[in-house]
Amino acid sequence: MSLQRCFNVRDLRSAAKRRLPAPLFHYIDGGSDDEWTLRRNTEAFDDYVLRPAVLADVANIDLRTSVLGCALDLPFFLSPTGMSKLFHHERELGAARAAAKFGTLYALSAMGTTRIEDVAAATSGPKMFQIYIFKDRALTKEFVERCKASKYDALCLTVDTPLAGNRERDRRTGMVMPPRLTLKSLASFAASPAWAWHFLRDPDFSIANVTHRVNALGKGIGLIDYINQQFDRSLGWKDVEWLRQWWDGPLVIKGVSTPEDARLARDAGATALMISNHGGRQLDGSAAPIECLQPIRDAVGRDLQLIVDGGVRRGTHILKALALGADACSVGRAYLYGLAAGGQAGVERALELLRDELLRDMALLGCTRIADVVPSKVARLPS
Ligand code: FNR
Hints:
- This protein has helices spanning 9-19, 22-29, 36-43, 91-101, 116-122, 137-149, 168-173, 183-190, 193-201, 211-216, 223-230, 237-246, 259-267, 289-300, 315-323, 333-365; strands spanning 48-50, 65-67, 70-72, 76-78, 106-108, 127-131, 154-158, 251-256, 272-276, 305-309, 328-331, 378-380.
- By secondary structure, the protein is of the alpha/beta class.
- It has a single domain (3-380), classed as TIM Barrel, CATH 3.20.20.
- The strands form three sheets. An eight-stranded parallel sheet has the order 4-11-10-9-8-7-6-5. It has a two-stranded antiparallel ribbon with strand order 1-12. The protein has a two-stranded antiparallel sheet with strand order 2-3.
- Helix 1 runs antiparallel to helix 16.
């Protein structure tokens, strides 16, 4: 299926499914436990209806906005996602270049397969680095210093991962990290020749910003074991304050769902929140970001910028989020399907589809600027 024959994000998902070995497709696509939250993230948008104004002179639509101190051409950007090289050899560089081409922000994950410095060198577009506060505080601090040196615009601290969620699809498909050519994986690799060719040419799937640290520890510990050991279940809000000492730029806390935590994040020094449940990959049974938004906006007022992260597959989803008080949305799978389907060109196709839907939907809603997408543009359906 060519990218041009993909008419929406669902089509990109089908194209990704066709190109990737099954364990990798399900690694992107899946969530935790029964995947209730994964489904809910998108379905909850259906609880809201848009309220169009007609005859509103929509000859010129302007999607520009400002998020995290960055002027963006779009009110949505790319969420941080790890291990992009698993999905396409153009990896994080392809995604970051696509984001820059569309005038939006790229968030590089701490679990990325590309170095902080290499993303910065490849694009002059707005950039954010997603960090975890690892047990190895020296490495955490080193990340911050490297982001400063490479002129990242913002730092994003993910806080919903004291440990990994229960991803049963990965266990069923035998997803192993890094991927290995085993008897079990052979059939799915063979069914994905384009992917397998690149895999065999360059089977290095290191987590690029961490490898040097593991190497310095010497023999006896693998990269994945090291990473698994680094998640610190004892973290608290005081640790956010610790991080704040080293970084005085925009700080986003990612993974907040309640007004109580939103206030704590503000008090710990956050400038923005990504309202997120990690795309339904962590606590199954937690609410969709879109339904958490309004109570959080009511609690923090304009003190924090709010980003809805999860379930976004359509321009109308973004409009509903903006109308309910979001400053922007971010997308994970929507662009990862594109990356898997066609590298940078696939990410560009994902961004193009969402942008064009948004342009059309803004006109149909009777709005010409992001600031026009106000609460009266949306209503909650009676439950
Ligand atoms: C993620 N996500 C994620 N988040 C994060 O903070 N650090 C990470 O390394 C990753 N890695 C990652 C890998 C994959 C394959 C997926 C699908 C997701 C979560 C991501 O940033 C975002 O919160 C969700 O993807 C948002 O939901 P949607 O847009 O995928 O529905």
